[in-house]
Amino acid sequence: MLTNLLHGLTALGNGPALAYLVGGSIVGVILGVLPGVGGLVMLSIVLSLINHINLTGTLCLFLAVNAASYFSASITSILLNTPSHPEAFAVTFDGFPMAQRGEAGRALGISATSTCIGGLIGCVFLVGFIQIINVLPLLFHPPEYVALITIAMLLVGTLGTDAASKALISAGLGLILSTIGASPVTGSFRFTMSATGLYGGISLVALALGAFAIPQMVLVFGTASAVARQDMMGNEMDSIDAIELQRGFGKQVVGGLLETFRHWFALTRAALIGVVCGVIPGIGGFAANFLSYGVAQQSSKHRDLFGSGIPEGIIAPEGSSLAKEAGGMVPVIGLGIPGGVGNALLLAALSIKGIQVGFGFSKAYPVLPYEMTWIIALGGLIGTASGLLAAPFLARVTKVRGPILVPFVFALAVVGPFVATTSFFAVMEVLVFGVIGFALRRLRYSLASFVIGLVLGPTLEDNIFLTHNVFPGVSFLERPLTSVLFALGILAMVLKTRQLRQGVIKARRDLEEKQKELTSAERAQGLRELERKRNPYPLLGVVCSISMFVFSGLYTWYGATKYNLQAALMPVIVGSVVALAALWRLPFEIQALVRHNGERKLPPGEAPPSTVLEPAEVGAIDAEGQRYLNEGQRYLNALAEPKSPVLSASVVVEPPGGPVGGAVSMPPIVDRSWGRCGSYTREVVAFLWFAGVTLAAWLLGFAWGIGLFCLAYGLFAMKRIFPKWHARLIFGMVAAGVMAGLAYEMLHLLHLTFTPAL
Fold first, then answer.
1. Considering only Cβ atoms within 10 Å of each terminal Cβ, which end of the chain, N or C, has fewer?
2. 700-732 pLDDT, tens per residue?
3. N- to C-terminal Cα separation, the chain
4. What is the dihedral of CA 552, 284, 30, 222, to 10 degrees?
């Protein structure tokens, strides 16, 4: 063990490996502060480049970016009360109140130390697990693998959805896509429709970029506000003033560092909870951090002070965040089963590099598990240290407007798939998966289960085939471990469904409690608003459910009639499950659509409601001038939410003193754009921009096409941010030069050529 541990460290001692490790950590820190932009978006971009990076460099990039992003996500939680990662939600409970008291440095010091030390504790336990990791595959046979993979996909999926059936459909869609291409059982081609680009299956790079990077950029383009005012779904939130870092920040940080060690027991307990949650596939860091926070609160002598800004309230969630990532390596390298999307992309990267995890992994690559452990430990250390030093700067980075990032990510999303596959067909796949991923995200389906289903599809199909042949019928349930795993999976899904329903009931009760003094009509309207927020896109939901039912039905029929039993077994099982789940969801979606259409109908003669701005808002508008005409409608979001996808409310602006007493009479400003202050229109435009850069790259080549796209984007898409044309021209020229030059150098250094259509 000691020899392999030392060799794992020395493998990182060469120049390129150190550059990837340090560079990945710094990139993870910088992008980790951007809600929705860092993390998975960056990993999907990295995935497109690894074909031309060695294995050690690939691991350094993947694991360092992921490890370093956890502390930087807490920077926005503490300073802005805006978590950048789901795991950082729990930090806001005590981190932001402490910062509000003028102790932001203390909170950041506690957060950094807890994250780093918790990660190191997790890595120590990971080294211990590596010693027994060869035993894990021996405990599991094909039926157990089927159960584990199914549980992992469903549990991961339920963390980001509002219905268990959505997690089932999401995982099923990923599995359906995994059957495209050569069958892992028979080797015959399936569902390719004679398209040569599909003979190798769906491109994992295209799926990752299309499912994560493109939808996120479309969402931030739709709101067009600073990233700190956007949640992880890209929706615009009420603005929160950043906590100013006062003098003595460095002294506060040092005090926070030392204070963390005085709570060593709480830190160790949090790290252990994180490791355990990471080892169990599907639990996820979101659950680990909240579980750690809950245990700390219930076992503390000062439980009433939690939420007011106490150190234990920061140590508990932060101590488990990176420790969970270390624990999550156990099922990845031991069983080949990821516990989250980040690990699923890591598995995809390893498969691209020809590395087969699971049985025999640690024997075939005895140094690699220790190398991964060192990368997590060093990446967390570099990330927290650089994050603390750059905290004042990173707090300002959150003020970057979302559309500024769009041309850079779009350009990488076009050139990256070609670099990874040397085929322009993968670029077209990104566009298709961008639309699919955006629809799934809008309807709160699980992109995590979707991606994990595609990555683990071949493994699941192999084990389903073996289970079917070795254990005919349902005899596999006679195995005790298989029965226990399936029982636990069913129990977990039942409990999760019950939890989701109880959450809806609780929200209704809380709303009714707040509206006791209102009339029955007003209470009914409040309940309708609550339901509308749960299902804001009912028409899209109905269309999506019908489409999934028809698509999965045709998929099942085609697979059953065109292929033999060995090749058709997986398609028939998965397609049938997805069809039934979509059919189950359809009545709920229709019911929501009927309610929604009923609310849109106004009585004859009734005018749309009007909203009058307060004098304070008018003063801000008068001072802003032209800026209000361009983007002022976003100030109305907190005052009047549309009751339908069409914002038809008349917005009346009155000057101080009222419509008669004011010195100036302003005409009404009526916004009838599509979506919340035109956000839907801008989202469609964003997709058109990505289609435009794809077409330009195909017609003119990557360098010229991307350059032209960036220049046009700067001139015509940045009017809301840069009102003056010469500022837009400068931005477009800079973006064009940087991204066109990057595309040219990438193709030139990798000796890749592409012949444009023109």
1. C
2. 999 999 999 999 999 998 888 888 889 999 999
3. 59
4. 40
Distance CA 97, CA 92 (A): 8
What is the sign, positive or negative, of the torsion defined by CA atoms of 187, 189, 190, 196?
positive
Yes or no: say if 402 and 225 are a contact pair by the CB < 8 Å rule: yes
Please classify residue 328 by burial: count the beta carbons closer than 10 Å to its beta carbon, then call 0-12 exposed, 13-18 middle and 19+ buried: buried
SS3 669: strand
Residue type, 232: M
* Tokens 């506690």, residue located: 110
Q: Give the 3-state DSSP-derived string for 126-154, with helices as H, strands as E and coil as C.
A: HHHHHCCCCCHHHHCCHHHHHHHHHHHHH
Extract the tokens encoding 469.
């042949």
Find, among 111, 104, 98, 117, the residue nearest to 395 by Cα: 104
pLDDT in tens, 374-396: 999 999 899 888 888 887 777 66
Q: Which of 36, 224, 227 is nearest to 681 (CA)?
A: 224
Average pLDDT value over all residues in the chain = 77
- As a whole number of angstroms, the distance between CA 22 and CA 64 comes to 8
Its pTM stands at 0.75
CA distance readout (Å), 257 to 197, 317, 323, 691: 54, 16, 18, 49
Residue type, 629: L
CA dist 124 → 120, 225, 323, 373, 376 (Å): 6, 42, 10, 9, 11
CA distance 443 to 579: 17
Q: Which residues of 371-391 are buried (b: 16+ CB within 10 A; e: fewer)?
A: bbbbbbbbbbbbbbbbbbebb
The answer on pLDDT for 733 being more than 90 is yes
C-alpha neighbours within 13 Å on the C-beta side of residue 111: 37
Return left, alpha or beta for 359; rule: phi > 0 is left, psi -120 to 50 is alpha, else beta.
beta
Describe the crossing of helices 702-716 and 402-421 by its angle, rounded to 10 degrees: 170
Please list, in sequence order, all residues whose beta carbon lies within 8 angstroms of the beta carbon of residue 702, skipping any fewer than 6 positions away.
414, 415, 418, 743, 744, 747, 754
Neighbours of 754 (CB within 10 A): 17
CA distances from 110 to 75, 146, 197 (A): 11, 42, 51
CA-CA distances (angstroms) from residue 459 to 138, 276, 335? 16, 25, 11
Closest listed residue to residue 437, CA positions, set 725, 260, 209, 106: 209
CA distance 259 to 703: 53
> Alpha helices, DSSP H only, in 33-103?
40-47, 55-80, 92-100
- What is the rounded CA–CA span in Å between residue 721 and residue 225? 9
Q: pLDDT tens, 417-467?
A: 888 788 899 899 999 999 998 888 888 888 878 888 888 888 888 888 888
Q: Determine the length of the chain.
A: 758
* Under 8 Å between Cβ of 162 and 446: no
CB 142 within 8 A of CB 345: no
pLDDT, tens only, 70-114: 887 788 778 777 666 666 778 888 888 888 787 888 888 898 899
Residue pointed to by tokens 């060593």: 264
Nearest CA among 50, 61, 389, 356 for reference residue 205: 50
Cα separation, 296 vs 293, in Å, equals 5
- Amino acid at position 473, single letter: G
Sorting pLDDT into bands at 50, 70 and 90, what band is 244? Answer: low
Determine the residue type at 622: D
Q: What ranges make up the beta strands (E) of 379-447?
A: none
